[in-house]
Amino acid sequence: MKYSVIIPVYNRPDEVNELLESLTLQTCKDFEVVVVEDGSSIPCQEVVEKYSDRLDIHYYNKPNSGPGQTRNYGAERSHGEYLIILDSDCILPPGYFEAVEKELQSSPADAFGGPDRAHASFTDIQKAINYSMTSFFTTGGIRGGKKKMDKFYPRSFNMGVRRSVYQTLGGFSKMRFGEDIDFSIRIFKAGYRCRLFPSAWVYHKRRTDLKKFFKQVHNSGIARINLYKKYPESLKLVHLLPALFTLGTVLLLICAIFCPYALLPLLAYALLVCIDSTIQNGNIRIGLYSIAAAYIQLIGYGTGFWRAWWNRCIYQKGEFEAFKKNFYK
């Protein structure tokens, strides 16, 4: 068996069903599926059992410990040469594993990852959020794809790693935010071959509304400072852009009290995002939603970054002590 698909789940049976259905449609079948329930109050065992005759699938239920430790739990019980780490809110196109196989045959890799896209079934809000997370005009330029401002770090929604590498590095750490980037940093620091597989993309739902999206990106901003505290060299100029954008937005809003023309840069950016998203999605409503999604992404991340910087770098608080209320079960 070449691949083991590891799926941590927390209260998302409907999304798991969509992901498992997409796995049954794969053109390449040399994989097993390991679903690990992370102490959910709404379990997905019945959903998993529906696929027992169509997939080589295994289900485990464990006390809550967060996604990183849950992935480790599944990895320990898997058998494939490569581990494919997926979030439960993903859907795979039929050629996903075929694309991975072609990439590995063309050039070996110890770890890899792929980009993400919006599925036609996603709501307009989800498509707008997808735009903001993948666009070059937001932070999409540093997350991976053909247009990048930093080297590619695989993310846990679509990550592959050779089993021997996973075991050597000890899998994911106990970080509650940014544990996937932490793992990617350790992969690079150990000298392993890690690269982007552009054709091995997934449909990624992420959050279903803007409030949940803000919380997600706010925690990502916190994670960047936590990573900086562990790996000071990992903080690059591009990681400061959302924080600087947030600071600039606040200053422009204050200036606008005395001079309304100070709002022009903010309006120009909104127009740019709206036009680009409308062209990409062929829908002006998604373009308008993308304005809100882009500002929420940048400011949510920026405020998380500044908050973490204040708590961890100025007050010198520990990771868990500084953000107790943000840690989810």
Automatic annotation (TrEMBL):
Keyword Membrane: yes
Pfam families: Glycos_transf_2
InterPro entries reported for this sequence: Glyco_trans_2-like, Glycosyltransf_2, Nucleotide-diphossugar_trans
UniProt KW keywords: Membrane, Transmembrane, Transmembrane helix
Domain Glycosyltransferase 2-like: 4-168
Keyword presence, Thylakoid: no
Domain of life: Bacteria
Transmembrane segments: 237-263, 286-309
Identification of the protein by name: Glycosyltransferase
Upper lineage: Bacteria, Pseudomonadati, Bacteroidota, Bacteroidia, Bacteroidales
